[in-house]
Design goal:
- This protein is α+β, with helices and mostly antiparallel strands.
- The protein has two domains: 12-104, no CATH class; 123-196, no CATH class.
- Helix content is 30%, strand content 20%.
- It has helices at residues 12-21, 43-54, 126-142, 156-177, and strands spanning 28-32, 57-67, 71-81, 87-89, 99-104, 118-121.
- The chain has a five-stranded mixed β-barrel.
- β3 and β4 form a beta hairpin.
- α3 packs antiparallel against α4.
- It is globular.
- Bound molecules: zinc ion.
- The site of zinc ion (ZN) has 6 residues, from loops.
Length: 200
């Protein structure tokens, strides 16, 4: 499976996915200008600190990611809106992305509890279908915990539930990332050749 990347804004599958995630909204590219001291994966606190220092407001919404030929995902995210009303992502992104595809969503009213990501398979692979099911299950499971201290609030049995889910997720992740010959059948079990599927 290819690397997770910012998809093209005019990709029909992206437009459809955005419509499912936040029907009243439209996605746009948002520039990533990392703020000093901003912490990876801590967008809400990063933006809050920025507002306290420089004004502006927070926009909640979703970052859209593409794993080519495999799946689309939407991760809950906060960006900073400056005094000229321009959205800027001040949180460092994995792989140093310079812009993200961002879908504002004003129906997200609280970030106290973890908000599950949303996923859409782009393939008929049964392995990817299981992957999406497990990611959804884990997102739902984690959504009963507060954003700030997930691990601290987990009982021993909840930690075990999370571990079982994560282990299978990691296992499938490794399997569908596995490289094979270009003309071999794809490890994701889509019944397509590797070069036309996850190896494209
Ligand atoms: Zn594949």
């Amino acid at each position: 499976m290819g690397k997770e990347t910012t998809p093209k804004i005019d990709d029909v599958r992206v437009i459809e996915f955005c419509r499912e995630v936040a029907p009243a909204s439209r996605c746009s590219y948002v520039q990533v200008i990392t703020e000093n001291n901003a912490i990876h994966r801590d967008c809400f606190n990063n933006v809050s600190k920025k507002i306290a220092a420089d004004g502006g407001t927070m926009q909640l919404g979703w970052t859209i990611w593409l794993r080519p030929n495999v799946l689309l995902s939407a991760d809950c995210h906060a960006v900073w809106v400056n005094n000229e009303n321009v959205m800027i992502d001040i949180t460092p992104q994995p792989d140093g992305e310079e812009r993200i595809l961002f879908l504002p969503d004003n129906t997200i009213d609280s970030i106290e509890f973890r908000i599950p990501s949303k996923y859409k398979a782009l393939t008929k692979s049964p392995l990817v279908a299981e992957f999406v099911e497990l990611l959804d299950a884990r997102g739902k499971f984690l959504s009963k915990f507060k954003t700030s201290d997930v691990m601290l609030n987990m009982s021993e049995s909840e930690k075990m539930t999370d571990l079982v889910l994560s282990m299978r997720i990691d296992e499938i992740n490794v399997e569908i990332k596995r490289k094979v010959g270009r003309n071999a059948s794809c490890p994701c079990l889509s019944e397509m050749k590797y070069k036309k599927c996850c190896g494209a």
